[in-house]
Amino acid sequence: MNFKINEAIELLERTPETLSHLLVGLSPGWLTCNEGDNTWNVLEVVTHLIEGEKVNWIPRINIILTKGASYTFPPFDRFSHLKNKEEKNIEQLLLEFKQCREESLLTLKNKLKTITDFEQTALHPEFGPVRLRELLSTWAVHDLTHITQITRIMAKRYKEDVGPWKNYLGILK
Amino acid sequence: MNFKINEAIELLERTPETLSHLLVGLSPGWLTCNEGDNTWNVLEVVTHLIEGEKVNWIPRINIILTKGASYTFPPFDRFSHLKNKEEKNIEQLLLEFKQCREESLLTLKNKLKTITDFEQTALHPEFGPVRLRELLSTWAVHDLTHITQITRIMAKRYKEDVGPWKNYLGILK
Questions:
Q1: CB-CB neighbors (< 8 A) of B155 in chain A
Q2: InterPro entries per the record (chains A, B) (predicted)?
């Protein structure tokens, strides 16, 4: 096991600024391309990250801390951000993500003052018992997953443009 | 074809700052972990990006522009950064990458004042004729590939820590 709460927080703190430096000011083509039918573009990925801050991570941490081992998380709709979409640009989305993440981490750090047991659990609707440290690790890896997704979506825009180098670039497969 | 030189430059300009915001200040465990035997850690990936600036991208652009269609690129040793390693920390490496990239883009922008034909070619040692626009597209996708690699390396550090969520996180496979 590699999980340490301070090291997980290091990642969670960095994601909004990392995405801002990668994405703000890019031409629309980079932000609206996707990987094909029923795949997300960059704007949709960032909207999904915002949803997670609002309805997933802190609410589930709260359930573990306050309801305990026999309580089941409400399911998280991973596609909810595709419904009732407001038209926001990348600057607006990343500002909202940054604010939501700051609030989440402030809440988490306050809770950490009294958390002594990262092994405590609640029930996941599919997996059964899940531990607090598993949820926190997943939150950090979920960020990394979506940074990866964003760079892969953008890379694939040049899938044909790279010509024969396609064979060297596993990201395009 | 999606390639536009200004849009490719948008990506190339952003990579050093994006990596700095992701990586500077992280605990050593994030920077020195790898994906197993004969795989790179984050420091090695950044060192590889620096090598590319020094011996690959601009030198090959120069060959296309000055030597032309019958000239073969010298091969690029993708593992050269693993030999004669100096011990540099992530701040030093990212500063060097930033400086090399700024120099590369200054050189490129100067050349662009007189480039009218992005279809001109030179010979790749394996692929045969490759076009200037393919080389420039590859440079941008190569950046995205290595951002992806870095986030994947870090994610895998928590492969076991995420518990049953592993099934939802394709990056860990």
A1: 141, 144-145, 148
A2: DinB-like (IPR024775), DinB/YfiT-like (IPR034660)
